[in-house]
Amino acid sequence: MSTFDTPTHAPSPPLTHDTLTPLEQEILDEYARLLGNMNKLSTTLNDLADSPTAQVLDSLRGLERKMGLVFTLLKASVYSIVLQTQIRQEEGGGEGR
């Protein structure tokens, strides 16, 4: 019989709620939640990897157009506010003379 056939240590008994401290149980619960979150992430990434690239790119193009429109409107609003402020300052400065 070779040394590989015999176990070098006795197997540990299965852990039960009675043998775990509250901290150990809390850690195991956190690992279980982490496993669930990792499985969700894996599923989501698989779904994204399976979707056609053209569809994703088209969606991103549409989003880019909308963001460009929002940015343009924001710039126009800021410009309008700055222009109105300058006009008020010029009108206010002209009256005081």
Can you describe what's shown?
By secondary structure, this protein is mostly helical. 74% of the residues lie in helices and 0% in strands. The protein contains two helices and no strands. It has helices at 22-50, 53-95. It starts with 21 loop residues before the first helix and ends with a helix. The model has no long low-confidence stretch (mean pLDDT 82).
Number of helices: 2
Low-confidence regions: none
Report the strand count.
0
User: What sequence of helices (H) and strands (E) makes up the elements?
Assistant: HH
Radius of gyration: 33 Å
Mean pLDDT: 82
Main pleated-sheet profile = none
Secondary-structure-based class equals mainly alpha
Outline type: elongated
State the helical fraction: over 70%
Note the gap between the termini. Answer: 111 Å
Strand content: under 5%
Q: TL;DR?
A:
Helix content is 74%, strand content 0%. With 97 residues, it is mainly alpha-helical.
Task: Produce the secondary structure layout.
Elements: H1 22-50, H2 53-95
Task: Using brief descriptors, characterize the structure shown.
2 helices, elongated, single chain, mainly alpha, 97 residues
